[in-house]
Design a protein that fits this description.
Helix content is 69%, strand content 0%. The chain has 3 helices and no strands. It has one domain (12-59). By secondary structure, it is mainly alpha-helical.
């Protein structure tokens, strides 16, 4: 494997780490809300989180569905 190929692979590492952190925090918030019995999100929040997931998945091609 050449160095340039490794650079391309590792260039996505920071994006992957940010996505993993956001998914981890969102999962913990949902579990906490479920255990406490309080609603965590309203309808407007779901629209925002859906758009956020589209933006975070931009390198994977999911952002193209918005156009």
């Amino acid at each position: 494997m050449t160095i340039s190929r490794l650079k391309k692979i590792f260039s996505y590492l920071p994006l992957f780490c940010w996505c993993a952190i956001i998914v981890f925090l969102l999962y913990n918030a949902i579990v906490h809300a479920y255990l406490s019995g309080k609603p965590l999100f309203t309808g407007e929040d779901y629209v925002g989180y859906t758009l956020e997931l589209f933006v975070l998945s931009f390198p994977l091609g999911s952002f193209l569905f918005l156009f």
